[in-house]
Amino acid sequence: MTSILINTINMQTLWITAEEALALLGTKPQTLYANVSRGRIRAKPDPADPRRSLYQLVDVKRMAERHSGRRQAKEVAAEAIRWGDPVLPTGISAITNQRLFYRGQDVVVLAEQHTLEQVAGILWNIDDGGIKIPAGGENGGPRVAAALVALASRVMTDLPALGRHPAALRSEAADVLATVASALVPSSQVLPLHERLAHGWQRPEAAEPIRKALVLAAEHELNVSAFAARVTASSGAALSAATLSGLATLTGPRHGGAWMSVTALVEKAATIGAREAIRSTLSSLGLVRAFGHGHRLYPDGDPRAKAIMESFEAPAIYAELAKVGEDLLGEPINIDFALAALADSFRLPDDAPLVIFALARTVGWLAHAMEQVESGQMIRPRARYDGIVA
């Protein structure tokens, strides 16, 4: 019955009414509202009637499939790694009520004044505040490639993380961050990292927006790069190895490279207009987040994106794309959109969004790596074989 109902709904619809959601779920309204409050189903006000709500179709479908019958344990486990229920305990960050917290502190509030170095102190549980990053590095060559090489050169000589005192790990984490910073932000001066970036790019006026972006992008729960870092750390490998895993994962177009689709959309919009650019680009539901709109964990809008966009005046085309995109897709902009707008606004290098993201997220990867090591657990899920049986 559920599959028949799903087929009657236009699959290009991103948001459905409560009546449609209840028909798919086959439950009482109270159950629908409970799933919304627990973050399992995203909801937003109906633009046509703010007294009513609309519900994200993909979330409702997932819950309908979950409750269509008692699923086997293997099915539950498989779903857990695809935006499913939480699978790992952490004291690093939390996303609740569409807000992001670093060890209990609202990241938007932290971004008002904190630097990335101070946030590292918070995420790494350093009592005496932040850390200091020495000057270093040489100019020339792609920055992210240089960071990958620099980390790889440490992996076989750094000590394994397993069995070492937390204080020693934190000291090494600062050194690993310095290695990444020297590759991404080479400087002969000892400056806060946001100032090093602005100075290196010869855009001193961009220092404050960059500072905010670094803080807001430093950590985001169990995203794919953080998970990769934790898996590596769980083997006992060096912190540099865990960071290398995170950085390699970040380079994927569905993670750290998502901003590139935003810049491509901007170029297209400059030629044919924002509305037509989005219409012609949108060919499936899966493309919604590929050009900077929507986030599963923030149905009402990514608070990180909002905070970044408020720190500078973006070109008019970005404001138009943000509005038209939300009108057409029902999804506000996300952090990928904001980083692309930041880079364009201050005429930063083409890879600036990835450099900012990589430098910031290194702090989060190291926090996850150290927490995983201290847990003493190895991450080793089982695979469900679905190949040919002889």
Automatic annotation (TrEMBL):
SUPFAM superfamilies: Citrate synthase (SSF48256)
GO molecular function: acyltransferase activity, acyl groups converted into alkyl on transfer
Keywords noted in UniProt: Transferase
GO CC terms: cytosol
Record carries keyword Repeat: no
Gene Ontology BP term (one): tricarboxylic acid cycle
PANTHER family: CITRATE SYNTHASE, CITRATE SYNTHASE, PEROXISOMAL
Similarity comment: Belongs to the citrate synthase family.
Protein name: Citrate synthase
Lineage per the UniProt record: Bacteria, Pseudomonadati, Pseudomonadota, Alphaproteobacteria, Hyphomicrobiales
